[in-house]
Specification:
It is a single chain. The chain is flat and about 35 Å long. The longest helix has 17 residues. Helix 1 packs parallel to helix 4. Helices cover about 75% and strands about 0% of the residues. The protein has six helices and no strands. It is an all-alpha fold.
Amino acid sequence: MKETLKKIKNCKTMFELDSLRLEIVKNAKNGEEFFEMQREFIKKKNSLKRNGHTREKEGYTLVDVTYQAIRNDS
C-alpha cells in the first residue's frame, strides 16, 4: 500500500492519477486499506483540480483510462 500511496502523491497530471484507480481497487481486494488510499486519491485529485488539471484540458475521458487499464491488465 505504501507504494500505491507514493504513486498517488507523485502524480503530476489527472491522467496519471486516474490510471491508478484500478490498482487501488485491486490492492483493496487483496486486503490493503482502501479508505486510506481513497483519502489520498481524493486529496490529490482536489489539489490537481485547484491547479487547473482536468480531464477535459488533458484531452481524455475516464472511460479512456479505464479501457486502457483493462487492456494493459489482460
